[in-house]
């Protein structure tokens, strides 16, 4: 698989990674054995970057990864995240004490003494980012993390943070129907030598030959309360996206493959981490790393899915608390 660097001085990883929120049941139940089958397929496909987080099942995702890598050590570059507190109510905590406690728990569940990349999952706005970075630098100096990451941030936060210490990666949502990073964040990452890690690069499953059937989703599925998957928006979105999906198939690739290839072509510093519970879907995602879309294909994609085509916001009012807004 094509390799890309996690930051200017970071390790090389496959251009397509694996987002492991799916291991926590966010899109339906998955057993440890099923998660292990996906991880085994990742090794076969050259998918070497795993992205997880403390809140993914309260550590379930990390535990599934930990039990797998116990028998497959040193095969993956692993990132995890902390900073979101879910109980008794949702809030954000970027204090050193909480981040340290979270990191220690993640290391224990993963069965390692070091993670390659550690993200602030969401900003706590009343703590200056400079202070948060100072905490992260401590973790790096202690050998607990290899690099510092920030998630769902604005370009101005990245620029402030980078003055304290280089930021290895920024992780924000980016796909054919979520284009905000093009308004400054992709550019700031390239300028500062920071990898841009795109999550939900297949639009939470809409760029696929089997678009989600809302009535069939589990009650706790994230998409049930997401504006783009609620009516009347969802029917309108499906009608538009179906034309793209048909076009991808006509070009000899799945919609997921084409959607991921489009993301990767937005810069050499871009890495995509689509999530899945299926080895077959993982293989579709991985194919994107070896595809270069032609100018004609890119033009047709722009015609079918023009900027801003999606009906509905990417998050509801409740879901949007935490990500930094800009532009």
TrEMBL record:
InterPro entries: AKR, Aldo-Keto_reductase, NAD(P)_OxRdtase_dom_sf, NADP_OxRdtase_dom. Residues 15-304 form the NADP-dependent oxidoreductase domain. GO terms for cellular component: cytoplasm. It holds the Pfam family Aldo_ket_red. It comes from the Bacteria. GO terms for molecular function: oxidoreductase activity. Keywords: Oxidoreductase. This is Aldo/keto reductase. The lineage of its organism: Bacteria, Pseudomonadati, Pseudomonadota, Alphaproteobacteria, Hyphomicrobiales.
């Amino acid at each position: 698989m094509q390799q890309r660097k996690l930051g200017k001085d970071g390790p090389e990883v496959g251009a397509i990674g694996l987002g492991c929120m799916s291991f926590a049941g966010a899109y339906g139940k998955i057993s440890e054995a099923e998660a292990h089958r996906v991880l085994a397929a990742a090794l076969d496909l050259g998918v070497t970057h795993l992205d997880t987080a403390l809140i993914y099942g309260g550590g379930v995702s990390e535990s599934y990864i930990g039990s797998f890598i116990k028998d497959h050590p040193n095969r993956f570059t692993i990132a995890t995240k902390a900073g979101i507190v879910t109980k008794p109510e949702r809030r954000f905590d970027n204090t050193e004490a909480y981040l340290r406690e979270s990191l220690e728990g993640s290391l224990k569940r993963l069965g390692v003494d070091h993670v390659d990349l550690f993200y602030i999952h969401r900003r706590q706005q009343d703590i200056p980012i400079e202070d948060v970075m100072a905490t992260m630098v401590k973790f790096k100096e202690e050998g607990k993390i290899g690099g510092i990451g920030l998630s769902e941030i604005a370009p101005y936060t990245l620029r402030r943070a980078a003055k304290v210490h280089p930021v290895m990666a920024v992780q924000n949502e980016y796909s054919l129907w979520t284009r905000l990073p093009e308004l400054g964040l992709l550019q700031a990452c390239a300028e500062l030598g920071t990898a841009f890690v795109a999550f939900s690069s297949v639009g939470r499953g809409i760029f696929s030959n089997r678009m989600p059937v809302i009535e069939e989703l589990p009650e706790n599925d994230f998409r049930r309360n997401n504006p783009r998957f609620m009516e009347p928006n969802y029917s309108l979105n499906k009608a538009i996206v179906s034309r793209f999906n048909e076009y991808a198939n006509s070009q000899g690739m799945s919609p997921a493959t084409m959607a991921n290839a489009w993301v990767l072509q937005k810069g050499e510093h871009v890495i995509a981490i689509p999530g899945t519970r299926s080895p077959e879907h993982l293989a579709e995602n991985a194919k994107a790393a070896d595809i270069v879309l032609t100018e004609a294909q890119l033009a047709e994609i722009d015609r079918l899915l023009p900027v801003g085509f999606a009906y509905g916001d990417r998050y509801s009012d409740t879901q949007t608390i935490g990500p930094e807004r800009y532009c």
